[in-house]
Amino acid sequence: MNIDTAPKKVHHGRNIKRLCEMLGIKQDSLAIELNITQAAVSKLENKEEIEEDTLEKIAKFLKLPVDAIKNFNDETTVSFISNTFNNTHGFMYSTYTDCTFNPIEKIIELYNEKQELYERMLKEKDELLEKLLKK
């Protein structure tokens, strides 16, 4: 069998890890959102196949469709980047027809959500410290 034409096995965990890295999301943030430990997130990233309900929770947190996790691979990413940044007009535009979202808007949304999460975590930390000091 020719290796180049063999279907490539999808690895959900690796795809989640790559997408989180691309979006600047740390394991601990994902762990908080999923209500699991950072070690459990690490185990998820090593799983080849992840349950549908967990994929849906992760996709919702990442603000991506579940199919983006299931079908993510280097070739589509390279194609997307190539189509987005290589043009003859001197500005960014995308001719990638399978992309159903604006990546810049997703980055802005994720930044805002990370900011909200950070502020929420700080507030919870302050409340916890306040409770500890009262004791």
Explain what you see.
This protein has helices spanning 12-23, 27-34, 38-46, 52-62, 66-71, 74-85, 103-134. The chain is built from seven helices and no strands. The chain is globular, with a radius of gyration of 18 Å. Helices cover 67% and strands 0% of the residues. It has 135 residues and is mainly α. It has one domain (8-134): lambda repressor-like DNA-binding domains (434 Repressor (Amino-terminal Domain)), CATH 1.10.260. α2 (27-34) packs across α3 (38-46). The longest helix is centred in the C-terminal third of the chain and has 32 residues, at 103-134.
List the SSEs and their pairings:
Elements: H1 12-23, H2 27-34, H3 38-46, H4 52-62, H5 66-71, H6 74-85, H7 103-134
At the first level of CATH, the class is: Mainly Alpha
Q: How many β-strands, per DSSP?
A: 0
What distance separates the N and C termini?
A: 69 Å
CATH level-4 homologous superfamily = lambda repressor-like DNA-binding domains
Structural class designation: mainly alpha
The low-pLDDT segments are 84-97
CATH architecture, by name, is Orthogonal Bundle
Helix content: 55-70%
CATH topology: 434 Repressor (Amino-terminal Domain)
Largest sheet composition:
none
Mean pLDDT: 78
Assembly type of the chains comes to: single chain
Order of helices and strands: HHHHHHH
Principal-axes shape call:
globular
Strand content: under 5%
How many DSSP helices?
Answer: 7
